[in-house]
Amino acid sequence: MSTAALHKKELSPKEYKSDVNVVWCPGCGHHGILNAILRALADCGVDTTNLINVSGIGCSSRTPYFLNSYKMHTLHGRAGPVATGAQLARPDQMVVITGGDGDGFAIGGGHMPHMARRNINLTYILFDNGIYGLTKGQYSPTSRRELKAYTTPYGGPDDPMNPLLYMLTYGATYVGQAFAGKPKVCADLIKGAMEHKGFSYVNIYSQCTSYNHIDTIQYYRDLMREIPEGHDVTNLAAAMELARGDTEGHRPMGLLYQVQRDTMDERLDAIVKLVGGHADYDLNKVVDLFRP
Ligand SMILES: Cc1ncc(C[n+]2csc(CCOP(=O)(O)OP(=O)(O)O)c2C)c(N)n1
């Protein structure tokens, strides 16, 4: 969301950290992503009383425990609808979803297009480790076929999905990607996403040192290529071309796409004004207006 309307506070990154111990495995990329989120929050200067962090279930979905914010650790795959409700009820708050590739694209995959096409004014940070970490290593929608996991001991039969193409296709208005080994790039992308008005999606590759032994930090270093200078972030076709990766299979790092479009709360506001002149966000009044 635009941070202009939020209460500002000068806090250090560690003041956004709760006093709950981080329980992720040593070497897990999620640590780097958490640090990048803390830094991005400090850079935005958002007051912790203006921040709502929503998650589903997974290692990554434990993030709300570690942040100093309002929070809800919901059901597996259901962060999207809960965060949508929170944002529409409290458009004055910054809403951030944190979660994994399983949570977001397997069980929760049906919610992704709707947040994007409605341009819900929130930030989705996806910790993409290509595996289900919390449940000890099952194949996920972003797993590579070569991955020998608990459920696919001979490798998998499915090609991995491409989260960036998916989100661009359905109308996300801010799409970026990085990997956990680049904390400054991650923090800058997350800050941009938090300040963006509309649905922002940041895909961050994260090494799972316990269960995914092929997507290592070195693998991501070799995989990622910075987006060339001069890329026009308002050009959807160019963003999709980048999202596909190059002919050698490299993946883009940086901001692929950013445009401004009216958000769901603005659209609802416009409907309320149109039908009754009620310019507040009381959805009960909207429902009343449609009652016979
Ligand atoms: C309805 C339901 N189905 C399955 C589970 C089991 N479950 C918990 S977390 C998880 C997947 C976690 O993977 P991901 O979202 O990629 O996060 P990570 O742990 O890798 O960070 C699954 C299948 C559950 N908790 N609830």
Inertia-based shape? globular
Oligomer state of the chains in this structure: single chain
H and E order: HEHEHEHHEHEHEHEHEHH
According to CATH, what is the topology of the largest domain?
A: Rossmann fold
Low-confidence stretches: none
Structure write-up:
This protein is an alpha/beta fold and 292 residues long. The chain folds into two domains: 3-261, 3-Layer(aba) Sandwich (Rossmann fold), CATH 3.40.50.970; 262-292, no CATH class. 34% of the residues lie in helices and 15% in strands. It has eleven helices and eight strands. It has helices at 30-44, 63-66, 79-89, 101-107, 112-117, 163-169, 183-195, 217-223, 236-243, 264-276, 283-290; strands at 51-55, 70-73, 94-100, 123-128, 174-179, 200-205, 224-226, 251-258. Strands 2-1-3-4-6-5-8-7 form an eight-stranded mixed beta sheet, with helices on both faces. Helix 1 packs across helix 7 and helix 6 (163-169) packs antiparallel against helix 9. The longest helix is centred in the first third of the chain and has 15 residues, at 30-44. The radius of gyration is 19 Å and the shape is globular. The two termini are 35 Å apart. The protein binds thiamine diphosphate.
What's a concise summary of this model?
This protein is α/β, with parallel strands linked by helices and 292 residues long. It has helices at 30-44, 63-66, 79-89, 101-107, 112-117, 163-169, 183-195, 217-223, 236-243, 264-276, 283-290; strands at residues 51-55, 70-73, 94-100, 123-128, 174-179, 200-205, 224-226, 251-258.
